[in-house]
Amino acid sequence: MKLSYYNFQLPKDLIAEKPSKQRDEARLMVVHRDTLEIEHRLFKDLIEYVDEGDMCIANNTKVFPALLYGEKEKTGAKITVFLQRELNREMRLWDVIVDPARKIRIGNKLYFGPNESLVAEVIDNTTSRGRTVRFLFDGTHEEFIKHIRGLGHTPIPEELRALRDIENLDAERYQTIYAKNEGAVAAPIAGLHFSRELLKRFEIKDVRWRELTLHCGMGNFKDIEVEDLSKHRMDAEEMHISQELCDEVMEAKAEGHKICVVGTTTMRAIESAVTIFGKISAYDGWTNKFIYPPYKFSIADMMVTNFHHPKSSQYIMACAFGTTALISHAYEIAIREKYKFSTYGDAMLIL
User: Fold this and answer.
1) Which CATH architecture has domain 67-152?
2) Is residue 242 over pLDDT 90?
């Protein structure tokens, strides 16, 4: 399968700069795989497409305030550091992305916060913009993380930061209402549409809400640079699925209930845990699974996702679930009807 099949022209004015006023009042396009029908609804109408006993599975990762603004030693040049992953907690080693990266070299010191309260030393180059840094901090790991939280900013995607400044609103809205396990540097964006009111309606209707954890990384925004999709490698992300969830999923399927998966990260986690017998089992580790057509999904009957960028892994997965012809047609309609795309954009339900 070729990457060029998944290209389309996305007008820049359709990239949402801010979320909808109410989480569950974003638009929802409903795509029926059996009849090819397309409906235009609101996200809160999702409740009409699930029945008593059905199960909705979401990613409860919590976004870490991973964006730091600082200065380079001596020159005082302004820099942005995006924390990627903690490599060694005792040594305070982190993989980071730096911007601008051109003059950030091994041995440089970077200063953050009032009175330069936090210092990092660059100890390795990993990619053109990637660095490994060691933070110089006296105190426990818990004190260090608390200090980072105090200095850090909500890591909304770079494309949004190019359009506007980070706002107080982002601290709340770039986080799902059910976020629990901190470790993501990118939000599981399909879940941003769920409100407490909608989850309460799920409860009243006896639709089971269940959660897993996959800590979303910057790999979700990385361009695919190969034409042959079989040669693309996703960045590895940490994930955790309990045996209790696995047992409940298989029980629900055996009883004939539908499984609704919220977002591409949740789908990747579930499919990473599928055994050769078509069941899922508990998983604690890392996944770099990349799902692209043709692909046989083992668990999900329904999928909630946002409208994504051309040639992105998320768009390609949606095409795998709904067929490339149907989803590309739905995207043509979305553009014509001016649905909003990307992080704070509208949603799609594929049935």
Assistant:
1) Beta Barrel (2.40)
2) yes
Sign of the alpha-carbon dihedral angle for 246, 251, 252, 254 = positive
Residue type at position 341: F
Q: Of the given ranges (60-64, 146-150, 247-251, 327-331), which has the lowest mean pLDDT?
A: 146-150
Q: Which CATH architecture fits 3-63+170-350?
A: 3-Layer(aba) Sandwich (3.40)
Ranges of each domain in the chain:
3-63+170-350, 67-152
DSSP 81-105: EEEEEEEETTTTEEEEEEES-TT--
- The 10 Å CB-count burial string (b at 16+, else e) for 235-247 is eebbbbbeeebbe
Q: What is the pLDDT of residues 189-230, one digit of tens each?
A: 999 999 999 999 999 999 999 999 999 988 777 889 999 999
Interatomic CA distance for residues 105 and 202, integer angstroms: 52
